[in-house]
Amino acid sequence: MRIATLIISLLLICGNSAHSQVIGQYFPPMNPQAQWDTLSAEKLGWCTENLPALYEQLEKSNTKGYILLYKGRIVLEKYFGDFAKDSAWYWASAGKTLTSFLIGKAQEEKKLSIEDPTSKYLGNGWTAIPKEQEDNIKIKHQLTMTTGISDDVSDLDCTNDTCLQYKTDPGLRWSYHNAPYTLLEEVITKSTGQTLNAYTQSTIKNRIGMSGLWVKAGPYNNVYVSTPRAMARFGHLMLNDGIWNGDTIMKDREYFRAMITRSQVLNPSYGYLWWLNGQSGYMLPGFQFFFNGNLAKEAPEDVISGLGKNGQIVSFSKQHELVMVRMGQAPDSLGFVPNFFMADIWKLTMDVACRATSVEDHGEMSSSIAVHDNMVRFTNPEPGERIMVFDMTGKKVHEQIDHAPIDISHYSTGVYALVISSKKGNITEQIIKRQ
Asked: The pTM is what?
């Protein structure tokens, strides 16, 4: 009896230790208005002295709402200005991840196959491409941004057939083109016989207690609008492999795995409308350049993200069992897919969540350039290198054959590709001109 009492006492003592706590996965109640369990960062033993730096950066970068879940419980939740936990905001292109999930559900229900030609659902002539070439475009190509439809048009959102011109055969070119993606919504409605909102309601929202609505934005786009907590629910569903509190929302395990792994060789950091960290390199919207290294260098390597214009982010890391959500206005004047901003926020987040799990130190990645005070300097120069700078349109704005620093102070705000060419091949680095 004394031994049993001693064991129970030891277990209670250990259970009160922040570092020895065993915390199981948690799923919030189905009613979005019900209480959502929280965990204290202090009790978890996290580095709370770094919280002010995180919140300061979030506020400076026009954030409206930020949430961090650990194993499903809210550890950090912060709102700015008059935005509150029940306020709604748009997901922008982070909502593409919802569409990807819906396509997987439609395939699971045998309403479609991603190997089907898109014309099976949209009919012949949905593009201005000859029929024999149009029939080669599959749903899978729309999911992976490899339709071959030309992005050399004035309006990348335009879904009219006249806006959808031939550039190359499907699967040969990666291009972040919004219009072919948008037409996936029509594929869903035609294949399921339900509206986009109705199908989202029955397949996801009702199953995980998620709020929100697809709303029309402009003549072509639908965007998803919800609270940050609704976005966090979806992130937690993804963290748990499409299973919600024992309910397998997506039974097509092959599709689920494919959705969040490299979908093609052209852009290793892109799945089925999801962005992947920890790959060999990446491409970005507006560029036909391959950038070496991680999509988000300061984020955990296993982070998978939905990313939208003006810094809409839903990210999860299975290694750390974290879900991170950020909603708000543009962090600066850059409005493209915010991989650099996501990296900054993840770094500050992990400075706080310093003991979420044991973190392996991978060391600093070597880089051939350093940017400071609008000057690009070369840290590992080699003889015979040719250096070129291109803007987002592919126009060359600078070229030199030495390693003199490059002054970018007069460049327009935006992203540039710096290409270092030598006999060994090409290295492409990303330069961000913020102001």
From this structure: 0.83
